[in-house]
From TrEMBL:
It comes from Metabacillus idriensis. One of its GO terms (molecular function) is hydrolase activity. Belongs to the Nudix hydrolase family. This is NUDIX domain-containing protein. Residues 20-146 form the Nudix hydrolase domain. Keywords: Hydrolase. Its cofactor is Mg(2+).
Length: 158
């Protein structure tokens, strides 16, 4: 599912503007810990990915992000902040979708248990060779890193 999409852009918008962007796809989480990013190894896709996935019926984008982060990585972070929208294109059809992106910082990671979706989690600095990484997720992380360096986006450490 995720490997069939490609990064188009990261849109810095207010969370209240989400209704203007359709179709709204699943939510994803960027969790930074000790100046590295949390990634999880997808059993299905056999690559490292950001935690996230599809919304359940009646679930808000933030509720989805909190649930997916916990289900895939064992990390419970209810105070996620909205970062913006990942604009992505389906490679096969060219259709554009928007995924809400949430972020948080943590001093330490909570214990992880292997589950049906994820075999391992780790903290990654974007340069270390960890094997196959979801290309869209990598492009998103490098885009956000550049926005941070350029002063166009801020990361609340608090």
């Amino acid at each position: 599912m995720r490997s069939g999409s490609e990064f188009v852009d990261f849109l810095i918008i207010d969370e209240s503007e989400l209704v203007s962007f359709q179709p709204l796809a699943g939510s994803f989480v960027i969790l930074r810990c000790r100046v590295k990013f949390l990634v999880c190894f997808s059993i299905k896709n056999k690559k490292w990915e950001l935690p996230g996935g599809r919304r359940k019926l009646g679930e808000s984008p933030k509720e989805c992000a909190i649930r997916e982060l916990f289900e895939e990585t064992g990390q419970f972070v209810p105070e996620l902040e909205f970062a913006g929208l990942l604009k992505k294109r389906k490679k096969r059809t060219g259709k554009i979708k928007y995924s809400p992106i949430f972020f948080a910082s943590a001093k330490d990671l909570m214990p992880f248990n292997v589950n049906k979706e994820t075999s391992e989690i780790r903290l990654w600095n974007l340069t270390e060779n960890i094997g196959a990484v979801n290309k869209t997720d990598f492009r998103l992380l490098t885009c956000l890193e550049k926005l941070l360096l350029d002063g166009k986006w801020t990361w609340n450490e608090g």
